[in-house]
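fold-stage: in
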Amino acid sequence: MAAVPTRQSDRLIEKAEKEKEQKKEEERLARVAALVAEGLPADGSLEFRFNTQPIPSQAYQVRTKDVYRTADGVFLYSWAVEAFWDFRNFHPGQIVMSTSPYPQNDPSAKFNEVAGAGPCAATNAGPVGAKRRYSVVLWTTTRGLFVVPLFTLNGGNSFATMHEERIRDFVTLTTVSGVDPQYTEWAGHSIIMNLNPDLEGDLNPCCFADLASARSITSREYLQEDIGSLDGDEYLRFLSLYKIRSNEWLKQSFDKFESGVTFNDDRIVQPGSVFDNRAEYDNYENWQKLMADKKFHGMFQSKKAKDRYKEAMKKKPSKGPGAGSTSTKGPGGNKGPKPGTGGGGTGKPKSKPALGHKTTLDTYK
């Protein structure tokens, strides 16, 4: 049976409302008392102004919230609300220290069941750790810095546990008195870094830059800017190594499209005017069409790409006599062999879909 709602008397309702109003008044009086104790106007008539000012001899600025009395405009006090770096004061090849996050597995988290392999912990199910890590500035952006982090590889990770392709992600950095690389010969001589003399006793004279872990630092992140620097010629070598490795990664990406072309800077599409018509599929070069038509496993394609695929399937020539195969039942209802024509055998194998696809129309259902 449904519960029968109860009714409160008007007296109880009025009492609850009075207690509520009384509590509000007590809170208001407490706020007024706090303002009076600080020498502020009791009516709370204050004006708040935000102000951004540079800190002398530093690479960052501080934004403050200034409080003025509304009645006479008298300044009362201010406090800092945020600090942010002015990256125009940074230079390429500068070595900085910033907070670098990394994911962790949580043993108590829920697990993903993997067919044939049992439960497997999901990396994104656990907490995220962070540590202060040194990095080399590749370039500055309107948002912050783009840097390559540095590692000593003295912990669990070492070159002995890495495959050859992964080792190519690393570049050795040493001080002038450092030794030449033993594992990163692909990069040639080690990059010479110059460390802050006040910090040399605390820093390792040999470390490894992980080109595959380059990341951005935004203007409001923790940062220490006086760690060290690369000379201009050493920076040029370091930047060139990053570009060489990036081109290798881009080539691998191009190869996955099976377009028959190798990536180079000539393949970069320059932006056109928004007042011109958008480039259409029919005007593409053949390798561009192959890239547009490529369907990866689990990929979401546009309606235009799906329609092109369906049209291509419709235009395929139908199978001639004997090209297909049918099943015939043998004695006892079991299926017998599938006879073919034109020389016998089991008929022609099923051809691949057009335009480089490896899927069927069922993919789009």
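fold-stage: in (second)
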Amino acid sequence: MGLVKGDLTTQCKEAQPFTTEGVAFCSHPIQTPFQCQPPLTLSTYTEYVMTPGTACVMDARILFPEDYSLFIMWQRKLRPESGIGQIHDALEYDLFIKHREVLISSAISPSITYQSHLERNCGHTHHPSDSILNELCPVCEVGVHLSFLNTLALAWNKSGGVRLRPQYERTVSLRYRKFQKGWHIARLQLQELLEMFVVMATYEEAWEATHPAEAGAARKTNSASAALKLAQEDCMYPARLSQSVEQTKKQTLAQDAKKKVNFSRHVRIKHNDTISKAITKFTPDRPRYLFSRSSPAYEPGVYACPTGSEFIDTSHAVFTIATDFGNLKVYVTDDEEAFDLLQANPQYFKDSVGECQGIVDLHDSKIQIYQDIINDMAEDSNQEDSIVYLLREADRMVVLIDDDMGGVVDTFLFDGSDRGDLDDAKSSRKEELAARKEDWTCLRKCLQ
């Protein structure tokens, strides 16, 4: 059994290759995969596609400038050849990070040689079909590549992100280009590794088919199939979280000027389950002065206020203390402690004083409330200016009453609307959307 990919060929003489997704397999019936000579393992495959110097991911000076000198010293001990100062793949990056952590923890660093990241055992159980695989398990190796890609993505975002932020649009720095190129090279290396795992997953399925009694335990190991699933779920990619912009046609001024309302003399009236037609009866036009309620010639129309009711001006077209004060929402409480706490944090008024009881002008205690305000204004000549200011800012009031005395003890005016909270929420939402445009997401996040 063998594999054919590019110039890398390992196959038996009797092999009859068949292709799947650009990768050729041979159908020679050998029980254990990769048994033909010379054997092809994950190490030999990775050594071929990730040979140091063939495609370096990025300059270490840019990725971690504070540890660059340490990286140079560490790299020269392992590989005295060319390519010093360059990060060639995710495994080399992971090996250096572990070396740095050992130095930080003041532990004894194990003796390592170059290519040791391809030969060391992570301690995890491999799939039984990969009996000759004795280095990092597929899951750990994919995890190393994903961690390296995430590190590059974070550094890329700091240089402007996948979609350049406005402050970076005019000048694209060399640093940005290097992170862009490095991320794509690292992503290509991961893809080449996953193509190898696709082959290994096919071998694992064939082994499990011939060993049904051991298949259940084999699926719990860190197999190539599990590594492929991990890469599919956790591989980060730039998220498109900005709202779609709908293309709308701009209306000309001429089109806006033609807008008008037409009235038909025949209207359709729905009554219960039937729809009938009726003729709309229009009355002759009246002079404008007859519509003024203050005019002596005013006659109530069809939609005039019913007898016994009254109009309350809530338009705030004319500012007067009496009008604005009468339009305040009223909350009544006899709990003096709650009334005092309310002045410290008015946003919790519903929890302490209950539901709204209408407006001041329609409340049963209207006279007592007005009298309390008048008394306060009489005690202090500057109180009127304070009340005027409060009325401009407030939209409701809480009245403290005393049931024993049967009167109003005190009043408190405040702005209890959620307008400020809504403005803060909208602002934070805009900032969140602006920040999330540079976010990266993955399948696991999308499925949560």
